[in-house]
Design brief:
Chain lengths: ~750, ~180, ~425
């Protein structure tokens, strides 16, 4: 798009700006402050707060600069007596029915109305009448609400609709009695809390943080979320060694997610300071015995000796090394060095549910960033349910369609919520997504796809058509559960669809915050799955060193596998099925207690920063491994500094060449890992997939009915299990008899 | 050339809140047919929301939760969408009202022609204040804004019927005549 | 209540007094649907628009925008469907003309809509009637069925290749839904909030398609314009605004009612004192609101002996405006403080709540009025109210904010005594 320039005069100064730019943005960019409440970039225009008034020559009245796009020769005044009176007047109106209870308001100190009043408020309060009253209430376990403080900027209703596609919160009533709320006063939604985030006042509040601290008492630490693979940037608010809340407010942090977070990112943090955290190293001196607390030295020495014995007795490959895709790149990198250079075993992997190894080995196009997704012209989503598993990606897709006019091609066996945005919905039979991938790659497979997946050939053609007629970016996303061969075929789709005026970008949808990093650090390059490793337990594998834990899915049907080991070491935050079988348990530090990096599904390498000191005797996983290595006679030489480890990564991992912590400092301009883009022959893989698909039953049962909101988000995991509110959500978010106090009272024995 | 509206289809929100805890209301085939007639007028179903609300209200007295859920499902919108619309319009009831809703116009022309006396008279006669409903649920008394009877003031509207040029006697006649 | 024509040949009110005036037969027997015939055999859409332009017809809903020009804004080449929407929300206090037009002569509205639909190539059209006028909706539905039965509605009207449908739609109690963009929001099944202009409805209105919104009286004027020709119609009125105008008269007059006068009727005083039978009980005239509640209130001495011409220019010159033509006449017994309080309560109740100044301003003003009314008046209150009005006027999202402040501003300026009396503590 060639941007024409327009000449605008603002307060007597002449500027050249892109024609059609929004006046309020232009003025602010040029350094003229313009107050506003309802204007919010990339949301539908509202123009209701009337704060952003300016005078434009040849226009009758004052104009709202949020609704004006600049035209050539426009002459604008942003400061004058007339304008100031109007703006002070608006501010006065907004305060009229506002309770002015800042001293007891959680938002006090980071409230836009408060700040606006410092700038535009009058000295005396002319409003001496009685204020309209509404009682405080809870809208859900997560969201507290004080309607009286509302200025009706409707950012909340707009993000709920435009970002989340949920329309769970709306404005009811009319005139001065308009209130933001929900039917019957109960909020049934994914509980993302973005309405809280964008609220400029103390109307919508974090229900898990009520009356805990004043915002200015919190130390703000910019870090990366440790739940899903989207890698949202967030600010951890901590006080006296405790993480009190997590926000994405743009006054603290400006990452790829803007002010967006999901229910886990925003409310999942209490596990960090949970009382069940493992406090000290522990040793089980004999099988079946108890775990006895020990000092770090004892524990490390014990582990070293046992591993030595086993290596001598059964050979190096008898020791399995396992890392969790939740760990930092630093920890996974050190663990990989430990496995390959020190132990010298071939048997190492991660406790991920799926591997992206084959995808990356055949990567035929660069990874799409979330920004690319927002501005893509066509998006192909194969399987998965981003709204539940990678919520930021879900939001980007929704906005790309709603605000950017992108076309969404949805291939799924379930009518997921994003179907509302889909231009084409290929409703396939369960487990037949790969048939469609074949068809997308080559129309010769249409017959097979129609037969197995149960979608009309026209739809397949239409999908290809939609892609091949796109000018601009095409983003192909896929659920990481695809078979290795299907991943190969898909990774090379770019060669099928790429063109002069069309860029194909790929976007994998793995499950964990550092699934991609785990691949980059080489932890998956043996194409070994945790299942395979467990099956070798007690047989070729005699000992395992696990940083993190196996997932319930892994241990299902393999419950005794770990018991068959001679020796099991586990680094963990909490005791669980894996630690139950461990001979040595070592207390690991959570993401909030250490420095490091995560690599998200964009390939963006983003900083994790220490917000609080490690709890009890916990240590970062990499540090523990490095110490053990030292004990075993190999000094990685990292002098207890994550940045030193990362320097090592930058030297040894090709995609990370040249990176340093200082380079990764600015979360607003994240750095993308340079993954190798290759052209490979995938005909063999395609053939394998074909045989697999042919083996599928002919008419599968279609799944109708959209899964309830939260069916994945609210599922209790090791971490969310530590957040009482999540248990309410997992139980269907029942509406309590009274919403006047925290719904937590419903859970016996929960105090807060 | 067809004169039928071009259908614009919208996939509605794909899940309704679980915590509502009620089943959607059901209506007789006649009522359903009446609703279908309204839906047929518009290219977008949601346009029929007000006519449909009046029907649900007529059938159930007011928009009770089952009625709201019915509307949401029928129009493929969330209950919140029904709520936001219902609470905007003064003629849509989200709470029960009397069998006869006496709505006295209180705006200027009626006011200067004696609307105050009309309210007073009704209030005395029925023993309720403005905004209240008689214990037997027969009458609700309200004051409303201009109903377009300024030339025949004072007046009130009972449900949908206009009664104009009111005098105490006429008020008595009207109210006493109600079945 | 009277329905009268004064100073001109009956036009809009031609049939209202006939027996069964609302039946299609009576309508046809009295020149009904001839204009439509004339249009269908031989007039192009542009011909129709040109006639309307020549007629100098100005919108009767309150804004007074030239109708022909508005129709001209509709993009002919747009592939989208076009809509004509009749604004029958008539909620402006003091206004009740549309009500009687629909009650007594529904087919005139149908014919008017058919002709404008033809001119704008609109296939589907709606009559948005305020919910309280339920009985008028029933009347319109009957009339529409009659028309349908007579082949005047539906496919290939009168054998032409022009097909068109008209549907009734009900509001549900919201004055703001009279504002054309709020009306369209409401017609789409949303809350009745106004929308940003531009884009104007003519370009992007109902369902984001080109839409013309016209008042009932505007549309009912169209058949006569076609029959007599634009020029002839214009000559009935003034050069800038042609034809006749309906005035709704209420309050302290002996003969309240709906009066049809030629645009530019020369004497407002005569109209009140003679045509409307003078002030009730021989009392003194104190104040007049000539254009529905949303215009400046006038003192008697701005009317008496001033030969106020009753058209847009004349009333502006006299210190008010035509608005919706709702005459509210007040005698000496009226306390303008109270009448203004009453109207402010109306605007507070009807503010849609979208924008800050109108929502909070009207709420605040009502509270001030109440306090003063209960004896809590303070000397500075008059200034406060004027200042609040100034902070609303011209800054609200839609004109309702202005409409709410004008009555107060004019009342305080023109009837200071009624205010000051209450603003001095214990009479000092
Ligand atoms: C607050 C407000 C209320 C209005 N109410 C009505 C109304 O009840 N009836 C009407 O015809 N126009 C009303 N209007 C004017 C409409 O916005 C619009 O100008 C008119 O319907 C256009 O039709 P016309 O050009 O034929 O007058 C209102 C305007 C405003 C700002
Ligand atoms: S002025 Fe503002 S609040 Fe008032 S009706 Fe118009 S948009 Fe709504
Ligand atoms: S920011 Fe422009 S009106 Fe609110």
């Amino acid at each position: 798009m060639a941007t024409e320039l327009a000449k605008v005069t603002i307060n007597g100064k002449l500027f050249e700006v892109p024609k059609g730019a929004r006046l309020i943005d232009v003025c602010r960019e040029k350094g003229f402050d313009i107050p506003s409440f309802c204007y919010y970039a990339d949301l539908a225009l509202q123009a209701s707060c009337r704060m952003c008034l300016v005078r434009i020559e040849k226009m009758p009245k004052l104009q709202t600069s949020c609704t004006i796009t600049v035209t050539d020769g426009m002459v604008v005044t942003t400061q004058s007596e007339e304008i100031e009176k109007a703006q002070r007047g608006m501010n006065e109106f907004l305060l009229a029915n506002h309770p002015l209870d800042c001293p007891v308001c959680d938002r006090g100190g980071e409230c836009e109305l408060q700040e606006m009043t410092f700038d535009w408020g009058g000295l005396e309060e002319r409003f001496t009448e009685e204020k309209n009253y509404y009682a405080e209430r809870y809208l859900s376990p997560m969201v507290a609400n004080d309607p009286q403080r509302c200025i009706l900027c409707k950012r909340c209703t707009r993000v709920c609709d435009e970002w989340m596609g949920e329309e769970a919160i709306e404005a009811g009533g009319r005139g001065a009695h308009t209130v933001i709320g929900t039917y019957l006063g109960w909020l049934d939604c994914s509980q993302c809390g973005n309405c809280i985030e964008v609220c400029p006042t103390g109307t919508l509040l974090d229900g898990t943080y009520r009356h805990q601290t004043r915002p200015w008492e919190l130390a703000q630490t910019i870090s990366t979320c440790n739940f899903c693979s989207d890698g949202c940037q967030m600010s951890l608010g901590s006080r006296s060694g405790e993480v009190r809340r997590v926000v994405a407010r743009d006054r603290y942090v400006n990452g790829i997610n803007g002010e967006f977070l999901c229910v886990k990112g925003r409310f999942g943090h209490p596990f960090v300071n949970h009382e069940d955290r493992i406090r000290t190293p522990m040793i089980r001196y004999k099988k079946g015995g108890k775990l006895i607390p020990a000092t770090w030295d004892e524990a490390i020495r014990h582990v070293a000796t046992r591993l030595d014995e086993i290596a001598d007795k059964h050979g190096r490959d008898s020791i399995g090394v396992v890392g969790s895709p939740r760990l930092t790149n630093e920890s996974l990198y050190v663990l990989r060095r430990f496995a390959t250079e020190l132990v010298g075993t071939q048997n190492y992997t991660t406790t991920d549910l799926h591997s992206l190894q084959s995808f990356f080995e055949n990567l035929g196009a660069p990874l799409a960033t979330h920004r690319d997704i927002r501005y893509a012209k066509t998006i192909v989503l194969l399987g998965g349910d981003p709204s539940e598993l990678q919520p930021l990606t879900g939001k980007q897709i929704r906005q790309a369609v709603r605000n950017g006019g992108a076309q969404l091609v949805l291939v799924n066996s379930v009518p997921i919520r994003l179907r509302e945005q889909a231009a084409l919905f290929l409703h396939v039979n369960p487990g037949t997504d790969e048939a469609v991938i074949l068809a997308l790659a080559d129309s010769a497979n249409d017959a097979l796809a129609t037969e197995k997946a149960g979608v009309e050939a026209e739809l397949l053609a239409a999908a290809r058509q939609m892609i091949t007629t796109t000018e601009g970016d095409v983003v192909v996303m896929f659920d990481a559960s695809l078979s290795a061969e299907a991943q190969e075929v898909l990774a090379q789709l770019a060669t099928v669809f790429g063109a002069e005026n069309r860029r194909v970008l790929l976007h994998p949808l793995p499950l964990f915050n550092n699934s991609v990093g785990a691949h980059d650090m080489g932890m998956t390059d043996r194409h070994l799955s945790p299942y395979q490793l467990l099956d070798m337990a007690g047989d070729t594998i005699r000992a395992m060193y696990v940083a993190g834990s196996f997932l319930p899915e892994h241990l299902e049907g393999r419950a005794e596998a770990l018991g068959r080991l001679d020796f099991l070491v586990v680094q963990e935050l909490f005791e669980n099925d894996t630690t139950a079988a461990a001979d040595v348990v070592l207390p690991a530090a959570s993401y909030a207690e250490q420095d490091g990096t995560f690599t998200n599904n964009d390939g963006l390498v983003q900083r994790v920063r220490q917000s609080i000191p490690p709890l009890h005797q916990a240590k970062p996983d990499w540090m523990i491994v490095a110490q053990l290595a030292k004990e075993l006679g190999m000094d990685f030489g990292y002098e207890a500094s994550a940045s030193a480890v990362f320097r090592g990564i930058a030297e040894r991992v090709q995609a990370y060449t040249g990176m340093r912590y200082p380079v990764l400092k600015d979360e607003t301009n994240p750095i993308q890992a340079r993954h190798n883009v290759v052209q490979t022959d995938v005909s063999e893989a395609a053939a394998t997939v074909r045989t697999a698909v042919e083996a599928l039953p002919d008419e599968g049962e279609k799944i109708f009915g959209t899964p309830d909101v939260g069916q994945e988000l609210f599922r209790i995991g090791t971490l969310t299990d530590k957040v009482p509110q999540f248990h309410l959500l997992a139980n269907g978010n029942p509406r309590p008899e009274t919403t006047a106090i925290s719904p937590l009272y419903q859970i016996a024995g929960v105090s807060r | 050339m067809s004169s039928q509206p071009t259908q614009i289809t919208r996939i509605g929100p794909l899940s309704q809140p679980v915590s509502l805890g009620v089943e959607p209301a059901t209506f007789s085939p006649d009522v359903e047919a009446e609703i279908d007639r309204h839906l047929a007028k518009y290219p977008v179903a949601r346009s029929a929301i007000l006519p449909m609300m009046f029907i649900v209200q007529r059938e159930r007295g007011y928009l009770d939760p089952p009625g709201v859920l019915y509307l949401a499902n029928r129009l493929k919108v969330r209950v919140t969408d029904i709520w936001e619309v219902a609470t905007f319009y003064s003629m849509i009831y989200t709470k029960p009202v009397g069998k006869y809703h006496i709505q006295v116009c209180k705006t200027l022309s009626c006011k200067i022609m004696g609307a105050g006396k009309v309210t007073e008279h009704c209030s005395k006669k029925l023993g309720i204040k403005v905004g209240e409903t008689t214990p037997d649920g027969r009458f609700t008394l309200s004051e409303v804004e201009c109903l377009g009877s300024c030339g025949t003031a004072p007046m009130f509207q009972i449900n949908f019927d206009y009664h104009e040029n009111l005098t105490p006697e006429k008020i008595d006649q009207v109210l006493d005549a109600l079945p | 209540m009277r329905i009268e024509v004064i100073g001109c040949e009956p036009l809009q009110l031609r049939r209202v007094h006939l027996e069964n005036s609302r039946s299609i037969d009576v309508y046809r027997a009295n020149g009904g649907y001839e204009a439509l015939k004339k249009v269908l055999d031989g007039m192009s859409p542009d011909d129709v628009i040109n006639e309307v332009k020549k007629s100098a017809l100005r919108g009767r809903g309150g804004a007074g925008f030239p109708t022909g020009m508005k129709w001209g804004f509709v993009p002919k080449d747009s592939p989208k469907p076009k809509y004509v929407v009749c604004n029958a929300d008539e909620s402006e206090p003091g206004t009740f003309k549309d009500r009687y037009l629909m009650e007594r002569d529904p087919h005139m509205l149908i014919e008017g809509m058919l002709i404008s639909a033809y001119a704008l190539n609109a296939k589907t059209n709606y009559i948005y009637t305020r919910g309280e006028y339920r009985y008028l909706i029933d009347i319109m539905d009957v009339a529409l069925d009659e028309a349908r039965a007579a082949g005047l509605l539906g496919n290939n009207i009168l054998g032409s290749n022009f097909s068109c449908e008209i549907y009734t739609h009900t509001g549900a109690g919201a004055y703001i839904c009279g504002e054309e963009t709020a009306l369209l929001s409401s017609l789409e099944g949303l809350r009745g909030h106004p929308r940003m202009k531009p884009p104007f409805p003519a370009v992007s209105g109902l369902y984001a398609c080109p839409t013309v919104v016209n008042n009932v009286e505007t549309l009912t004027a169209v058949p006569d314009i076609i029959k007599m020709g634009g020029e002839a119609y214009q000559k009935l009125g003034t050069e800038k605004s042609g034809g006749t105008k309906l005035w709704s008269v209420s309050g302290h007059v002996n003969q309240p009612g709906v009066y049809e006068l030629p645009m530019g009727y020369d004497d407002m005083e005569k109209f009140i004192m003679e045509d409307c039978g003078g002030i009730l009980g021989g009392k003194q005239l104190k104040a007049v609101i000539p254009g529905g509640s949303s215009v400046y209130i006038m003192r008697a001495d701005q009317v008496v002996g001033k030969d106020v011409r009753m058209d847009y220019e004349g009333l502006v010159a006299a210190g008010s405006s035509v608005g919706s033509g709702g005459f509210i006449v007040m005698d000496e017994t009226v306390d303008v403080f109270e009448s203004t309080k009453n109207l402010t309560e109306f605007y507070k109740h009807e503010s849609c709540g979208w924008c800050t100044p109108c929502r909070e301003g009207t709420d605040w003003l009502v509270k001030v009025f109440k306090r003063i009314d209960q004896g809590g008046g303070r000397p500075e209150d008059a200034q406060l109210m004027l200042d609040l009005c100034d902070n609303i006027e011209g800054k609200s999202f839609c004109p309702l904010g202005d409409a709410a402040s004008w009555p107060i501003q004019s009342a305080i300026k023109r009837f200071p005594e009624d205010f000051l009396r209450r603003l001095t503590r214990n009479g000092d």
